[in-house]
């Protein structure tokens, strides 16, 4: 029980944020976070090595959300060119209070504008890679794509971001 509490305090916020960025409501995100930890407590699931725990929890979280959407008919609007596209919103939060508010707001607007020009999958992959710190293999597994597709998608997103930054 002590380990679950430690896991919860260490990862619950990241799981909740991921669900919100996938476009789920706050209540659905909270329910899914609880479901993940209830599953861990009731199913006696063995955890991976320490460096892979966040990836493992994000994968369970995404599966819980997808299953909840299918079985409970949660209204998550699908969009994009492909049928498996879904909205992925990244709202950059400013955590560094030392930097002046005006600079923070300008930087936030610039980043949101740049990310807003990416596709939904590109925004998701940038979030997983650079905000959650997942490895390419882990991202590929979470997103249900191949390793090579993952690398290409990150590279394409970074090229688009660099082009936008030069403007």
Describe the structure.
It is built from seven helices and no strands. It has helices at 2-21, 26-42, 53-72, 101-116, 120-131, 136-143, 147-166. 68% of the residues lie in helices and 0% in strands. The longest helix is centred in the N-terminal third of the chain and has 20 residues, at 2-21. Helix 3 (53-72) packs parallel to helix 6 (136-143). By secondary structure, the protein is mostly helical. The model is unreliable at 74-83 and 92-99 (pLDDT under 50).
Q: How many individual β-strands? A: 0
Question: Could you describe the largest sheet, including whether it forms a barrel?
Answer: none
Tally of separate helices? 7
Helix content: 55-70%
Mean pLDDT: 79
Q: Any idea what the radius of gyration is? A: 17 Å
Task: Tell me what portion of residues adopts beta-strand conformation.
Answer: under 5%
Global outline: globular
- Contiguous runs where pLDDT drops below 50 for at least 5 residues: 74-83, 92-99
The H-and-E topology, N to C, reads as HHHHHHH
Short description:
By secondary structure, the protein is mainly α.
SSE arrangement:
Elements (H helix, E strand, L loop, with lengths): L1 H20 L4 H17 L10 H20 L28 H16 L3 H12 L4 H8 L3 H20 L1
Features:
167 residues; mainly alpha; 0% strand; globular
């Amino acid at each position: 029980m002590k380990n679950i509490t430690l896991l919860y305090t260490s990862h619950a916020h990241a799981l909740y944020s991921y669900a919100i960025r996938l476009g789920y409501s706050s209540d659905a995100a909270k329910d899914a976070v609880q479901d993940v930890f209830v599953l861990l407590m009731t199913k006696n699931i063995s955890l991976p090595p320490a460096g892979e725990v966040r990836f493992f929890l994000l994968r369970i979280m995404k599966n819980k959300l997808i299953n909840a959407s299918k079985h409970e008919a949660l209204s998550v609007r699908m969009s994009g060119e492909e049928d498996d596209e879904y909205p992925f919103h990244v709202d950059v939060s400013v955590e560094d209070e030392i930097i002046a508010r005006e600079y923070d707001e300008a930087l936030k607007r610039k980043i949101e504008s740049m990310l807003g020009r990416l596709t939904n999958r590109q925004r998701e992959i940038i979030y997983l890679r650079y905000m959650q710190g997942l490895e390419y293999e882990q991202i590929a597994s979470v997103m249900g794509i191949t390793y090579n597709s993952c690398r290409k998608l990150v590279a394409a997103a970074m090229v688009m971001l660099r082009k936008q930054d030069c403007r």
